[in-house]
């Protein structure tokens, strides 16, 4: 009468031996030992139909088969779980000896690279760098720089006006008045690199937002020749040792004489900015005697430099921050 039990046990042991995954085993556990529909549990129900004298032996046989199947599942499970763990570890193994993947560390914006280049050349020439606000007083943007009150540059069309006394600075030249107004005594040699703003329509070569560097010096016996030497040194630092600097007469209210600065690049002359000897009115306003001291000053745009150096033909690209563009530098 215990034959069906032996059959189920044999079948179960064969299936357990053949199981290839722990998931299979779980299914087999349910199939043979499951509380509701397990095969062995099914036989257990026969117990009630047996004559009383056969019950103990049948029950004992059932329990024995249950133990055997449970043990077989447990030991096969241990084997399969170990194999599965090994396979997973193999799959997820990290080879610590492989070279690391280089992260993309980011880089400086091409304009920042230009600023740093100009700054390092000028630091070597003894300039100290100052900073001031993008929002500037008319006083420093114009008055200190000897602009007559009716000068057309004060026209609201040219600048972003903030209120009666303030505007977005139109150049970095206010550095001059900002430093001179502090009452420091010469020798002075200061510079500033920064963002400037004018009411200009955006096209390939213009923008309402751009960048200038200004530098100036006040000392005894400074001449236009010193200025030209300094300009040549700076331009060589930016454009390479062959750069040639050209001065041509030009007018700015804050210098006398004033010049336009151009640099020879290939067979072209690039106009980069302006310069000149600081106007005596400015020195006087600062309490510096123009018969004893003289000064020179220069200012030039920085946006066209990376354009020329890298062959970029659209100025606004530098402000649009399109990563496809920026990653090229
Ligand atoms: N600020 C002038 C401009 O925006 C450039 C300039 C000319 C600056 C002559 C100077 C200078 O310091 O001396 O065009």
Can you tell me about this structure?
With 329 residues, the chain is an alpha+beta fold. The chain folds into two domains: 3-91; 110-326, Bira Bifunctional Protein, Domain 2 (BirA Bifunctional Protein, domain 2). The protein is 41% helix and 20% strand. It has helices at residues 3-18, 22-33, 39-46, 55-91, 110-124, 138-141, 175-180, 224-239, 280-285, 304-310, 317-320, 323-326; strands at 128-129, 135-137, 166-168, 188-197, 209-219, 244-250, 255-265, 268-278, 294-301. Strands 1-4-5-9-8-7-6 form a seven-stranded mixed β-sheet. Strands 2-3 form a two-stranded antiparallel ribbon. Strand 7 and strand 8 (268-278) form a beta hairpin. Helix 5 (110-124) packs across helix 8. The chain is rod-shaped. It binds 3,4-dihydroxyphenylalanine.
What are the defining features of this structure?
9 strands; alpha+beta; 7-stranded mixed beta sheet; rod-shaped; binds 3,4-dihydroxyphenylalanine; BirA Bifunctional Protein, domain 2; 329 residues
Question: How does the SSE layout of this entry go?
Answer:
Elements: H1 3-18, H2 22-33, H3 39-46, H4 55-91, H5 110-124, E1 128-129, E2 135-137, H6 138-141, E3 166-168, H7 175-180, E4 188-197, E5 209-219, H8 224-239, E6 244-250, E7 255-265, E8 268-278, H9 280-285, E9 294-301, H10 304-310, H11 317-320, H12 323-326
Parallel strand pairs: 1-4
Antiparallel strand pairs: 2-3, 4-5, 5-9, 6-7, 7-8, 8-9
């Amino acid at each position: 009468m215990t034959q069906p039990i032996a059959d189920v046990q044999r079948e179960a042991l064969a299936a357990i031996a053949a199981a290839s995954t722990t998931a299979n085993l779980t299914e087999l556990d349910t199939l043979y030992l499951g509380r509701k529909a397990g095969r062995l549990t099914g036989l257990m129900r026969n117990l009630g139909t047996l004559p009383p004298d056969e019950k103990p032996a049948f029950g004992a046989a059932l329990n024995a088969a249950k133990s055997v199947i449970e043990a077989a599942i447990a030991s096969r499970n241990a084997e399969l779980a170990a194999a599965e763990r090994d396979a997973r570890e193999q799959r997820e193994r990290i080879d610590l000896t492989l070279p690391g993947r280089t992260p993309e560390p980011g880089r400086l914006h091409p304009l920042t690279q230009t600023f740093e280049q100009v700054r390092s050349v000028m630091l070597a020439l003894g300039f100290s760098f100052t900073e001031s606000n993008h929002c500037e007083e008319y006083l420093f943007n114009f008055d200190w720089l000897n602009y007559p009150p009716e000068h057309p540059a004060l026209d609201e069309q040219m600048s972003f006006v903030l209120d009666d006394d303030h505007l977005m600075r139109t150049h970095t030249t206010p550095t001059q008045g900002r430093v001179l107004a502090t009452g420091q005594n010469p020798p002075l040699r200061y510079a500033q690199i920064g963002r400037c703003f004018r009411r200009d329509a955006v096209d390939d070569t213009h923008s309402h937002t751009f960048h200038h560097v200004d530098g100036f010096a006040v000392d005894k016996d400074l001449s236009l020749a010193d200025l030209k030497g300094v300009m040549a040194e700076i331009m060589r630092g930016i454009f390479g040792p062959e750069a040639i600097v050209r001065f041509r007469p030009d007018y700015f209210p804050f210098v006398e004489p004033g010049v336009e600065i151009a640099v020879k690049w290939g067979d072209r002359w690039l106009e980069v900015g302006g310069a000149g000897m600081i106007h005596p009115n400015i020195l006087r306003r600062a309490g510096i005697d123009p018969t004893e001291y003289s000064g020179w000053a220069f200012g030039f745009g920085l946006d066209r430099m990376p354009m020329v150096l890298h062959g970029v033909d659209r100025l606004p690209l530098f402000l649009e921050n399109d990563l496809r563009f920026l990653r090229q530098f």
